[in-house]
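Exercise: predict the fold of this chain.
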Amino acid sequence: MFFLHFSSHNTRDFRHRIHAQGTRASLEYTQAVSRHVSRFWQSTLFSGGYMSKPFMIFNIEIDRTLISEMQDAQPRVSVIPFTGYVRSDLFTGTILPGAADVQITDPSGCRHLQARYMFRGRDSADNTCYLYVDNTGYFRPEDHKKTYIDACPRFLTDSPLLAEYLSRPVFRSEIHGTDTGVDILVFDTAQNT
């Protein structure tokens, strides 16, 4: 999974186990990712070396009547379709149909989130382009006092202007609740203010 640095052998092993054993292996994989992301946040982001101003903000709108849930199983699963847009100096665009956030909540209350979506818009040179986002995060029960959820975004784009910058594994995001959905603030951890 993007820059989480699992070796390809470990990833293949987890995928094989998920296919062979189903939900239990999937839960183990989610917990392993959550442990790794937790170490990443503690060692990198909270050391004070990240940018305090987001360079992009995604405005996400959620129609709660469209959410699909499997609540009686362990782990619980929610699929949340959404729409939205981004306006920034770097890129401006609108989310295309098919965007969804899949949330898996394990029996301990730890929630793993993975949102995948694509924008169509224009880069800073006013060229038409696409921006794909894969944003993975987690929320632990002990995080209930935080006002946002931590996540790690990965970007893919067909814009030559944006590709080199956005392909680097140096971004983090904060997911903040709003009345109609969420705002996702994207930060470049390699930049200092």
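Check your answer against the key: The CA atoms of residues 61 and 178 lie 9 Å apart.
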